[in-house]
Design a protein that fits this description.
This protein is mainly β. Helices cover about 10% and strands about 35% of the residues. It has 2 domains: about 160 residues; about 100 residues, Nucleic acid-binding proteins (OB fold (Dihydrolipoamide Acetyltransferase, E2P), Beta Barrel), CATH 2.40.50.140. The protein contains 4 helices and 16 strands. The longest helix is centred in the first third of the chain and has 8 residues.
Length: about 270
């Protein structure tokens, strides 16, 4: 399968050039060299829904879970290519965010997308349009989440490439937001940064899944649900951190499975004190 070539000028463009990029690159092919057919498109973010218009439970007019939705102008935050459990089942997730937005509920994960063009391999910064089913999953297999907690995602969407851009900048949040699902849900799927945090004890490895609690015991109603740093997107190892390791900042994608996590994308996302 061939990878789509990327334009270096697109990835370094300024926000003011987004509209021009959209028009210039809207017909971008899959790197075959063919002259693309002319394609009419809307504004840089498209004329469909934004993620936050679908995922924010405070919007009374949003589509109900289970609805087919069209979301336009999302940028790829991260593509999970790291198989932490080494069984082929812990990679492939793609996280996207409303282009140019750091507002709550602007991010989401997409499950089993089909791409247009068919040989497209997306990377961070790619701008896509999506059409698929919006889900709020109350369980993953036999694992049932606590009452009131769900995993939002777009299921089996058709993802159409629009143009290259740059990855989003992280939103700085308070790590305590992630200690309460009702507050932290708004950051799921988004790229965030937390500052001046420390791992409580050691980072541990459980069957390939590496985690470290980012708040001390007693911070919430259930210590097991404290937010963690994880190796979902990057080969974080227990040996990479000392006991009670402090960090000036941790950047990563917010994910959810019984508790909220921050998944760094690379070693550069972890800045030790």
């Amino acid at each position: 399968m061939q990878s789509r070539s990327r334009s270096s000028s697109a990835t370094s463009a300024s926000p003011a050039a987004v509209a021009a990029l959209a028009l210039a690159l809207a017909g971008c092919s899959a790197g075959t060299g063919d002259v693309p057919a002319k394609k009419e498109i809307g504004p840089p973010v498209g004329d469909g829904n934004r993620i936050r218009e679908i995922a924010d439970p405070g919007i009374a007019t949003r589509p109900a879970p289970g609805s087919d939705v069209t979301v336009t102008g999302v940028t790829v935050v991260a593509v999970d290519t790291f198989d932490e459990t080494k069984n082929g089942k812990s990679r492939g997730a793609i996280f996207v965010q409303d282009l140019g937005s750091k507002e709550p509920y602007s991010g989401i994960g997409i499950f089993a997308p089909a791409f247009v063009p068919g040989d497209l391999r997306v990377a961070a910064g790619d701008v896509l349009d999506l059409r698929g089913e919006y889900q709020e999953n109350k369980n993953i297999g036999t694992a049932i989440f606590p009452e009131g907690q769900v995993l939002p995602q777009l299921s089996r969407p058709v993802a159409t490439f629009r143009y290259d851009f740059r990855p989003p900048e992280p939103r700085e949040i308070d790590v305590k937001d992630l200690n309460d699902y009702a507050i932290g849900r708004r950051w799921i799927g988004m790229l965030v940064t937390v500052k001046n945090v420390a791992v409580d004890g050691r980072i541990t490895d459980n069957g390939g899944r590496v985690t470290g609690f980012l708040l001390p015991k007693g911070s919430g109603a259930d210590d097991r649900n404290r937010p963690t740093v994880t190796n979902e997107l990057y080969d974080l190892k227990p040996a990479d951190a000392e006991n009670n390791q402090g960090y000036a900042s941790i950047t990563g994608v917010v994910t959810y499975f019984f508790n909220l996590h921050i998944a760094p994308r690379s070693a550069a996302d972890l800045v030790k004190r």
